[in-house]
Specification:
By secondary structure, this protein is α+β, with helices and mostly antiparallel strands. It has a single domain, classed as Arc Repressor Mutant, subunit A. Helices cover 49% and strands 13% of the residues. The protein is built from 5 helices and 2 strands, in the order H-H-H-H-E-E-H. Helix 3 packs across helix 4. The model has no long low-confidence stretch (mean pLDDT 87).
C-alpha cells in the first residue's frame, strides 16, 4: 500500500466520523477490500461478515443502513447475490461526468 492509498483510507475514515462503529467498519472494509474494474467488492456478505467478526444478520442490516444513507451503492447483482462499491459520498470523488450538448 502506497502513501496515496493510505491518504485515501484516512479520508474515508475522516468522512465517516459521525457514524456508528459498525457502519464505519463496513465502509472501511469496502474501502480496503480488493475490487473489480467497476470498483465492486466481489465477495459475499457472509464472507465479509465473518472477516470482521459480525453475524451475517447484523452485517446485512448495517450494510443496508449504509446503502440507504448513500455511502455504498449496489454495483451488480448475480442471481440473488448483490455486490456493492463505495459511492462518491464515501470517496469524495466526483465520478459522474457532466453531460454536455452535442454541437
Amino acid at each position: 500500500m502506497n502513501n496515496d492509498d493510505k491518504r485515501k483510507l484516512l479520508d474515508v475514515l475522516h468522512r465517516t466520523a459521525g457514524m456508528t462503529a459498525n457502519q464505519r467498519l463496513i465502509i472501511m472494509l469496502y474501502a480496503m477490500h480488493p475490487t473489480d474494474r467497476a470498483g465492486a467488492v466481489i465477495d459475499t456478505g457472509a464472507n465479509l461478515a465473518q472477516l470482521v467478526g459480525m453475524s451475517p444478520t447484523v452485517f446485512s442490516r448495517t450494510r443496508r443502513q449504509v446503502v440507504e444513507a448513500g455511502w455504498l451503492e449496489e454495483s451488480e447483482r448475480l442471481a440473488h447475490i448483490s455486490y456493492y462499491r463505495l459511492s462518491a459520498k464515501s470517496t469524495g470523488e466526483d465520478v459522474v461526468v457532466p453531460l454536455r450538448r452535442a454541437t
